[in-house]
Design brief:
CATH topology: Indigoidine synthase fold
Largest sheet: 11 strands, mixed
Catalytic activity: D-ribose 5-phosphate + uracil = psi-UMP + H2O
Strand content: 5-15%
CATH architecture: 3-Layer(aba) Sandwich
Family: Belongs to the pseudouridine-5'-phosphate glycosidase family.
Number of strands: 11
Distance between the termini: 26 Å
CATH superfamily: Indigoidine synthase domain
Number of helices: 13
Oligomer: single chain
Order of helices and strands: EHEHHEEHEHEHEHHEHEEHEHHH
Structural class: alpha/beta
Subunit structure: Homotrimer.
Cofactor: Mn(2+)
Number of domains: 1
Pfam families: Indigoidine_A
Shape: globular
Length: 302
């Protein structure tokens, strides 16, 4: 069997304790070394401090692991040329015995395999701005339409076409709600001008329970705004994104290399501000996800 669930996670799930799934693509591709390892461990500690059990998911030497150890997180964080896999790429990484970071789609799939119902991430993938030319649409969207899971993120990555992505999610039956906000956040920015229904952790748990009882498939996406003290205003982000997109086109970068390139370029343009914001929003999402998980697992709601 190529899936290993840590004893801590296995025990927590069996006892109905609040478990929060965490992705590993942020370790392998989202943050630079050593911030990637430091942040991953700090996010796990955030979950623990708020009364939950973290389950960081990744692939180490071809083994799918749900509940990475500190050593395994460090292995991924120091890996040279690790893979970044969506759901379809999991068997490739397994067969090649590779190290790989799991995206939102792969993490959602594997979390459901382990009966974990709440997942914290930075931001989900979506429809790219030049979709008419490239037809570049993240697997995250299809996967979320299949999974019975609550995903907490700071909205959709702002380098994407946020409005088209939200329309796609609605078509696919993914319920999108705002965590104590009526405006959909766009990763580094708290606003977008797009309205969303506001909920707290108690309402999320109740909605999730009702959805499952009715047999309605699809994830619930909880959009949690970035902390105000590290927010980057929307107009400034748009200026940096458009500059990065122009460089992207000039260099002819396509496919899986697009998102890492754009994030790196925007990091340079922001003089490091986006890295600080990225780390802060991930920790904040882990905190909110743990609050939600505690309510979901309370009184046998799972």
């Amino acid at each position: 069997m190529n899936i290993r669930i840590s004893e801590e996670v296995k025990s927590a799930v069996s006892k109905g304790l609040p478990v929060v799934a965490l992705e590993s693509a942020i370790i392998t591709h989202g943050l630079p070394y050593p911030e990637n390892i430091e942040t991953a461990l700090e996010v796990e500690e955030t979950v623990r401090e708020n009364g939950g059990v973290p389950a960081t998911i990744g692939i180490v030497c071809g083994k799918v692991i749900i509940g990475l150890s500190e050593h395994e997180i460090e292995t991924l964080g120091r890996s040279e040329k690790p893979l970044k896999v969506s759901t379809s790429g999991i068997p490739l990484a397994v067969s090649k015995k590779s190290n790989a970071g799991t995206t939102v789609s792969a993490t959602s799939f594997l979390a459901e395999c382990a009966h974990i119902e709440v997942f914290a991430t930075g931001g989900i993938g979506g429809i790219h701005r030049d979709v008419i030319e490239t037809f570049d649409i993240s697997r995250d969207l299809e996967e979320l339409s299949l999974r019975n899971i609550v995903v907490v993120s700071s909205g959709i990555k702002s380098i994407l076409d946020v409005r088209k992505t939200l329309e796609y999610l609605e078509t696919k039956g993914v319920l999108v709600l705002g965590y104590k906000t009526q405006e959909f956040p766009t990763f580094y920015s708290r606003g977008s001008g797009i309205k969303v229904d506001s909920v707290d952790e108690y309402e999320v748990a109740s909605i999730f329970k009702a959805k499952k009882e009715l047999g309605i498939a699809g994830a619930i996406l909880i959009a949690n705004p970035i902390p105000q003290n590290v927010e980057i205003p929307y107009p400034i982000m748009e200026e940096w994104i458009n500059t990065a997109l122009n460089v992207l086109k000039e260099q002819g970068i396509t496919g899986k290399d697009v998102t890492p390139f754009l994030l790196k370029k925007i990091f340079e343009l922001s003089e490091g501000k986006t890295l600080k914001a990225n780390i802060a929003l991930i920790k904040n999402n882990a905190q909110v996800a743990t609050r939600i998980a505690k309510e979901v697992y309370k009184d046998g709601l799972d």
